[in-house]
Amino acid sequence: MTRQAHLAAWAVGLAALVMLPFVYRDPYHLHILVLILIWSFAYTSWSMMGRFGLVSLGHGGFMGIGAYVTALLWNHLGLSPWVGIPVSMVAAGALALIVGYPCFRFRITGHYFVLVTLALSGIVLQVITATRDWTGGSLGYTPNRATGNKLWALQFDDKTTWYLVALAVWVVGLVVWHWIDRSMSRYALEAISEDEDAAAAAGVDVTAEKLKITLISALMTALAGAIYCQYQMFITPDTVSGIAVSLQMVFAAIVGGLFVSLGPTVGAIITILLAESLRIGFGTRAVGWDNLVYGVLLVLFIIFLPKGILGSLLERLKPQRKPSPSS
Amino acid sequence: MLEVRGLVKRFGGFTAVNNVSFKVDQGEILGLIGPNGSGKSTIFNMLSGTLTPTAGSIVFAGTEIAGLAPHRIINRGIGRTFQIPRPFRRLTMFENVALAGYYGQGRHSRAKAEEAAERALAMVGLSTDRHANVDGLGAAGLKKLELAKALATGPKLLLADESLGGLDEAEMDQAADMLRKIRDDLGITIIWVEHIMGVLMRVVDRVMVLDHGEKISEGLPSAVASDVRVIEVYLGTDAETTQAAAAEARRRAGG
C-alpha cells in the first residue's frame, strides 16, 4: 500500500469508529468496547517498551498510581481530574525515572530488569493496601460523585461520551506508537535491544534513550489507569495495580503482536472477550480461570507465534518483505 | 591530535595495560600490534570509552577524554569498529549506518544522517539500497558494514580493531587499501589494531608493538620489523619453538 492509501484506510476506519455509538446503542456492547479501548491503550503503552526488549512487570504500578492518585486528589482535595490526571502522570513518570535510571545506568537488563520492575508492581500494590485509611485498601475505592459540573469532574453517565473519550485516548496511543516507530529513536532502541555496547559505539546515549521510552510508557500507562478509574468509578488494588495487571499487559501485547501498532489492540479484544465469556458462561465458578487460560496461551504463543496474532497475519500478507530477524 | 600518557588499566590484580604513552599525528596511520592478550583491545576500549582507565590521560584534539562515556567520545570525533562485527540485525543495512550518522554526529537532522550513511556505504563499497537486509552479508560484507557505521559517525580519528580477521588474502588486501583510501580521501587519522603483520606493515606509517601490556617498540615499519625485542616476543617465540621442534625431529630421525 502507498502512504496515501494507508492514511486513507486509517481515516475511514477511524470515521467508522467515531460514528459507531450514534447508530449502535446497545449499552452492554458499548461498555465492552470502552473497556477494550482503555485496555488497548494500556497495552499499547506497555508495548512501547516491550517491543524493544524492555520487559516491564512494573506497569501495574504505573497504572495504579494513575488511578489512585487521580481519585485521591479528587476526593480529598477536590482537585479536578483535569489537574489530577497530569499530577498522577507526573508521579508515575517520576517513579519510572527513579527506578529506571539506576537500572539503565548500571546495565541491569534482561531477567534482572524484569525482577526489579516486578518488585515495583508489588510495592505499589502493597502501599495501596497498607494505606487503607486513605485508599480503602483491598476493598476498593470510589471517587465521589460530582455534584456540580460533570465535565469538570470528568464523570459522564452515558456510554456514548465514554466511548468517544476512550476512543480519543486510544488514538493518542496509536499516534505516539507511530511517531516513535518513524523516529530515529526506534533505530536507537532496536540497536540497544540487540547490543548496548555497539549502540553506544554508534554514538547512542543508551541510558538516555531507555529513560525516554520508559518515561513515555509510564506516563501513558498512568493515563490509562486514571481513565479506567473515571469510567468504572470503582477501583481496587487488584484491578488496576499489582503483578496480575502487569502480567495481563504482557500477555495481551504478546498475543496480539508486540511489533505492530494494532497488535496490543488485538490482544485487548481477545483478553476482554475471553474474560467476559468466561464470566457469562461460568459465572463465579470461573473466577480466576481467565488467568489460567492466559498463562497457558502465553506459553503457547511465545513458542509458536512469537510475533503475536496480528504480527504473524500481517507478515503472511506481506511475503515480499523479508521477515525481521527478531527472536 | 591524540596524546596518551601513562595509561594504566588493571582488572583486579591483573595489569592489562601498564604505563603506555604514545602520540598520533594528524593524518597518520598508526599500526598497533602485539600477541594475544598484550593489551591492544584494552587500549582501544579505553580510547573509545568502553573502559575507564585506572590511571593516565588521553588528550584528544586538546581536551582530556579519559573516562568519558562512549557516546560522548564518538561525538567528539573518535569512531571505532569492533574486532567481531556487531551489526544490528533488526535494522536494515542502511538503517544501521544512518543510526550511526544521526547519533554519532550530534543528532542534527535525519536528512544529514541519511546523507552521511549514503556516503559511508558508497565509500566502503556496499549497496545504498534502503531495504537491503544485514542477513545477506558475508564476513567481508559485515566488516565493511562495521567500517561504514564508524565512518558515518564522522570521525577525525578512526580506531579500526583487527579489521582483517576472517578474510581471505584478496579481501585482506582490499581492506588494507580501503583504510589507506579513507585516510587519503577523507583525511581521517587511523589507529589500526591487527594480528596479521604483513598487510599492516604495507599500509601503516608507524608501528607500535605491545607485549604484556607494555610498549616494547615503536617506529617505522621497517625498523620495528627488525627490532630484536619485537622478533623475540611477537614473531620469535613461535619460530623458535618450531625450529627447536624441527631440530629435535631431525635428530631423532638421524639417530
UniProtKB/TrEMBL annotation, chain A:
Keywords: Cell membrane, Membrane, Transmembrane, Transmembrane helix. Coiled coil: none annotated. The keyword Membrane applies. Signal peptide: none annotated. The keyword Nucleotidyltransferase does not apply. It holds the Pfam family BPD_transp_2. It is a multi-pass membrane protein. The chain crosses the membrane at residues 7-24, 30-46, 53-74, 80-100, 112-131, 161-180, 250-272, 292-314. InterPro entries: ABC_transp_permease, LivM-like. Its main location: membrane. It is found in: Cell membrane. PANTHER family: HIGH-AFFINITY BRANCHED-CHAIN AMINO ACID TRANSPORT PROTEIN BRAE, HIGH-AFFINITY BRANCHED-CHAIN AMINO ACID TRANSPORT SYSTEM PERMEASE. This is Branched-chain amino acid ABC transporter permease.
Automatic annotation (TrEMBL), chain B:
Keywords: ATP-binding, Nucleotide-binding, Transport. It comes from the Bacteria. SUPFAM superfamilies: P-loop containing nucleoside triphosphate hydrolases. Residues 2-237 form the ABC transporter domain. InterPro entries: AAA+_ATPase, ABC_AA/LPS_Transport, ABC_transporter-like_ATP-bd, BCA_ABC_TP_C, P-loop_NTPase. Pfam families: ABC_tran, BCA_ABC_TP_C. The keyword Transport applies. GO terms for molecular function: ATP binding. Involved in beta-(1-->2)glucan export. Transmembrane domains (TMD) form a pore in the inner membrane and the ATP-binding domain (NBD) is responsible for energy generation. This is ABC transporter ATP-binding protein.
